[in-house]
Amino acid sequence: MSKRKSPQELGGYLKFKRWLAGDLDLLEDVTEDAGPAVAPESADRLPARDSALESRRRASEEVYGPEVWPQSHTPGYAQAWRDRIALQKGTGDAQAVLQAQEKSLRFFRAVYKIMAVLLCGAIILVFLWTTVHLPPFGSPDNPANNEVPARYIRHGVEETGATNFVTGMILDYRAFDTFGESCVLFIASCCVQVLLRVDACDGKSAARTRIQQENDRLFEPKNDGILQQTARLLVPLILIFGVYIILNGHLSPGGGFSGGAVLGSGLILYLNAFGFAKTERFFNERIYRRITLCALTFYCLAKSYSFFTGANHLESGIPLGTPGAILSSGLILPLNICVGLVVMGTMYSFYTLFRKGGM
Amino acid sequence: MEWVRYFLAGILLLLGLFLEILAVFGVNKFRKALNRIHAAAIGDTLGILFVFLGCMVLRGFSMDSLKLFLVIAFFWLASPVSGHMISRLEAMTNENLGEIAVVHLDNEGKQEEKDHGSV
Amino acid sequence: MIEQVFGALLIGMMVALGILIIVSIIRSVLGPGISDRIIAVNMIGTIVIMLIALLSVYLDESYLVDVCLIYAMISFLAVVVLCKVYTGVYLQKKQMKADLQAVEDNLKHREEPAGPEEKETN
């Protein structure tokens, strides 16, 4: 009906919106069909469609690729099934066409493999040859040892208060760069959501059942008992270890990024052992959004003054304390916690986006 | 008297290395995946225990020894579960797993018949 | 003197463990079937944990033991996720094959007596 308007008739912004919502298939004029095609939205209007068949068809689309499938009462339907079976079994005209395509691809594939191996070998050789010519590690007249690191090392501990000097560098002297890195993680998570076309279900049951039928976790083994008992013991351990790494960022190697990764992996283990329903009781999309928002806002308010003061150091009012104690080094501890929370949310959201299509 | 510590640590480390060589040799020698899990589990449990015990003897009573002990505790809890998941994967997805004998016991606990089925 | 001997022993052990890692890599490429490959990769993880512990003794740095613990966690998690996902994919493909077989049987069965309209029944 009116939904099959050609893409040239729509304006640019409206077209983008419809593509985001999944209503627009940009290739619908290009593919050849084996019969009257099913428009993607009109499938909801057919009353006699069997939902189990529908789910299996969608699941087969995910395994074998999308195709235009005719409706069951048209004469093209049986022929389409016969073509599909003939393709699988290797008989019939479809197979001949496929073999002709395969021949031209075979040469390309052979050349590709050889060129890939040669290119990797060349890059490896170049790297090894460069490594031979590097200056010896730690010798005092390396080009990297000039007055800039010397000044940082001389005044580092007394100005930042952090014994682990790398953390003092990234969270005090160069804190604005680290802010950009935390934002990059958040942007990556948003981009994955856009690419997977995650749209908000406003509680409409049709959309929800469609998403549930489309998920490819129908056949996975669920809820292994041994894994559950072990996860009950191990997940608190992993989470505590992650918190330890975050809090110890200014004393020993660790910090926000690695601690956040460990926290995220603890959550993923819990999710694998117990399933999505139990995990969403304490970590769902609302909590993720709020945590990320608060963490990034706090970081921004705490450290973006250097934009306005011309990178000159402003006193933050928090005393530096004795280096080596855990409550020392000013703002570094809260900033580590913020970065750790953002990284934990990002790790978990990547996993669930690729497994479930949403959070 | 330090040589006692080094001697003991050396013995434990070499024992751990020997067990790990046995494990890798076993993984390569067996043909079926379920048998290979048996061989890999030697390295996962005893091999790593002896190596870490050697490191603990070298460090004495300190924070480092406690951390090493924590690694062992975590590993001994987690590694058998890994073996269990791999063997479940193998049992569920391998087409030609071979013959499996099913033994039926009646009420007294004696074997009543032997049933050969293949999976 | 004894420290030097012990240092040489540690280096020798690390080289031996490195050779074991290479053998495991070969097994993970060769092993017919996915379970063999997962076993080999798990074993590589275990050997790397031992290697890092020996390195922490050799270099006398105590923070490397944290790395051991993290590596143990990550390798365990990797095995769990891989097994779950691959079992799901395999069973799904088996279901797809069974579906196609059923449809083919139905079509063949209905073609002999029936006319041009054919419906597929589950």
Describe it:
The complex is a heterotrimer of chains A (359), B (119) and C (122). Chain A has helices at 12-21, 51-64, 76-89, 93-132, 147-160, 165-173, 175-195, 205-214, 225-247, 256-274, 276-279, 285-303, 332-356. By secondary structure, chain A is mainly α. Chain A has a domain at 164-356. In chain A, helix 5 (147-160) packs across helix 6 (165-173) and helix 7 packs antiparallel against helix 12 (285-303). The two termini of chain A are 34 Å apart. By secondary structure, chain B is of the alpha+beta class. Chain B is 72% helix and 13% strand. Chain B has three helices and two strands. Chain B has a two-stranded antiparallel ribbon. The mean pLDDT of chain B is 87. With 122 residues, chain C is mainly alpha-helical. The termini of chain C are far apart. At the B-C interface, helix 1, helix 2 and helix 3 of B face helix 1, helix 2 and helix 3 of C.
Sum this structure up briefly.
Chain B has 119 residues and is an alpha+beta fold. Chain B is built from three helices and two strands; from the N terminus they run H-H-H-E-E.
SSE map:
The complex is a heterotrimer of chains A (359), B (119) and C (122).
Chain A lengths: L11 H10 L29 H14 L11 H14 L3 H40 L14 H14 L4 H9 L1 H21 L9 H10 L10 H23 L8 H19 L1 H4 L5 H19 L28 H25 L3
Helix pairs in contact in A: 5-6, 6-7, 7-12, 7-13, 9-10, 10-13, 12-13
Chain B lengths: L1 H28 L3 H27 L3 H31 L5 E7 L5 E8 L1
Antiparallel strand pairs in B: 1-2
Helix pairs in contact in B: 1-2, 2-3
Chain C lengths: L1 H29 L3 H26 L4 H48 L11
Helix pairs in contact in C: 1-2, 2-3
Question: What does the overall shape of chain C look like?
Answer: elongated
Radius of gyration of chain C, Cα only, in angstroms?
26 Å
In DSSP terms, counting alpha (H) and pi (I) runs of 4 or more, how many helices of chain A?
A: 13
Radius of gyration of chain A: 28 Å
Q: Greatest interface and its residue counts?
A: B-C, 49 and 47 residues
Residues in helices of chain A, as a percent range: 55-70%
Q: Any descriptors?
A:
heterotrimer, A: 359 residues, mainly alpha, 13 helices, extended, C: 122 residues, 0% strand
